[in-house]
Amino acid sequence: MRHTGFSIIMPTYNQAAFIRRAIACLQRQTYSEWELIIVNDGSNDDTEIYIRLPALNNSTSTLITGKL
């Protein structure tokens, strides 16, 4: 189990226009003991496309997707 100082849970639905900027802002933080959990509630725009690569390329990110 990975030790993290805190978790950021980011729920999203149809936020393709804003999600990349929000993720990039978090990834620029200098404090390294955190994890990002993105919960995509079945968006029907390009939200999942924009979050899939940052989530998969960053070991501190987890992507949960589907209709919740």
Automatic annotation (TrEMBL):
GO molecular function: transferase activity
Keyword set, alphabetical order: Transferase
Pfam families assigned to the protein according to its UniProt record, in alphabetical order: Glycos_transf_2
InterPro entries in UniProt: Glyco_trans_2-like (IPR001173), Glycosyltransf_2 (IPR050834), Nucleotide-diphossugar_trans (IPR029044)
Domain Glycosyltransferase 2-like: 7-48
Name this polypeptide is given: Glycosyltransferase family 2 protein
Organism: Phocaeicola coprocola
